Structures are given as structure tokens and as C-alpha cells.
Amino acid sequence: MTDPDLFARAPVYGLPKSFGACALHPAQPAAIATLAPFRGQGIAVADALKKLWKTGLPKTGKTRTVKSVTLLWSAPGQWLARGDFDPVALATALDGIAAVTDQSDAYAVLHLTGTDAADAMARLTPLDVATLAETDVARTEIAALAGVVTPIKDDYEIWLPRSAAHWGVEKITGAMERLAAQRALG
């Protein structure tokens, strides 16, 4: 008979990996939550977040970081919160004005770093990542998966669905490996 005890497992394993001038690291935050203000409650949600975290909601396609929490626009009328916070406390603070859903187990968050990170991203997404500013966020195809990408200085934070993250990591590291081999050939 199998053991019924459950245990937490990291969304991806076998990381970090490096090839050439590129590395892929896990960057799983302590918590992730989706915020969706109810109709006509956007200003009330922004005010509640200002009390809670001293910031309002970012504009379309943008992010905002305050202390240990980052808010990311994720879709019309929807934002993601990532960082060190309690999703239950957030839901309580926004009770009656927004839907809050704990997404901590829904995403695998990765950092792609190094001088070849932009070139590796060019092999993984149709999005021209060079056009993204540091506070931008975009929903796009990444390694044939629906994902989220945001630049962090010269690096990239990549969000993939946890259910397909292992496959996505294989595609990302494959692109890194091929790029490194191409660079080695000159």
C-alpha cells in the first residue's frame, strides 16, 4: 500500500543550470496571489493596498515593487502579487471589494541570467524582450507555454504553469545549450 502522507515538492528540480554565458535559477516566491477587483471597486482596492503595502495597483503591462512584495498586471482587471506575504491576510484586507486567490502552487518562477539571456529569450518567445523596460510585464508564449515575463535589469523573470514547468525548463535549458554551442563555434 502507498504512503498517504503528502509532502511539498519544488515546482522544478535540477536547477540551477548554466551553459555558456547564461544560467537558469529557481526564484519561487513565498506566496503568489491573484487579485481581481469587483466591478467598480478598483479605487477601493488601490486604497486598501496603499494601507496594506503602501502602493496601489500598477498600470496595464507594468509592475510595482514595495519592500518584499511585487504587484504585476496580468490581464484586464487582474493582477498578481508575489513575495513575502500571507494570502489569507490579503484576502481579508480586500474582503468584499476583490476576489483573491492563492496561486502559490500554480506557477513556477525562474530567473534567466547572464549576458546571453536576451539571446536565449529570443529563441524561446516571439516577444521582442529588448523592448521591455525594467518595470514592464508581458503575457506571452515562452518555450511553447503560456507564460509571463518581466525584465530585471539585464535578466528575466519567467513564470510558467507549474504543471508544465519541468518541460518548460527542458526547453529553456536546451535553448541555452544550443546558444552556448553556437558561441563556442565562433
What would you say this structure looks like, in words?
The chain is α+β, with helices and mostly antiparallel strands and 186 residues long. The chain has two domains: 20-28 and 106-185, Gyrase A, domain 2 (2-Layer Sandwich); 31-102, Heterotetrameric sarcosine oxidase (Alpha-Beta Plaits), CATH 3.30.70. The protein is 26% helix and 34% strand. The protein is built from four helices and eleven strands; from the N terminus they run E-E-E-H-E-E-E-H-E-E-H-E-E-E-H. The protein has a six-stranded antiparallel beta sheet, with helices on one face. Helix 3 (117-124) crosses helix 4 (165-185). The longest helix has 21 residues, at 165-185.
In short:
The protein is of the alpha+beta class and 186 residues long. The protein folds into two domains: 20-28 and 106-185, Gyrase A, domain 2 (2-Layer Sandwich), CATH 3.30.1360; 31-102, Alpha-Beta Plaits.
Tag the structure with descriptive keywords.
4 helices, five-stranded antiparallel β-sheet, alpha+beta, 186 residues, six-stranded antiparallel β-sheet, single chain, 34% strand, 2 domains, Alpha-Beta Plaits, Gyrase A, domain 2
Q: How does the helix and strand content classify structurally?
A: alpha+beta
Helicity range: 25-40%
Strand content: 25-35%
Biggest sheet details: 6 strands, antiparallel
Number of helices: 4
Number of domains: 2
Oligomerization category of the chains in this entry: single chain
Could you give the distance between the termini? Answer: 56 Å
Which outline best applies? globular
Strand order of the largest sheet: 1-2-8-11-10-9
Rg value: 18 Å
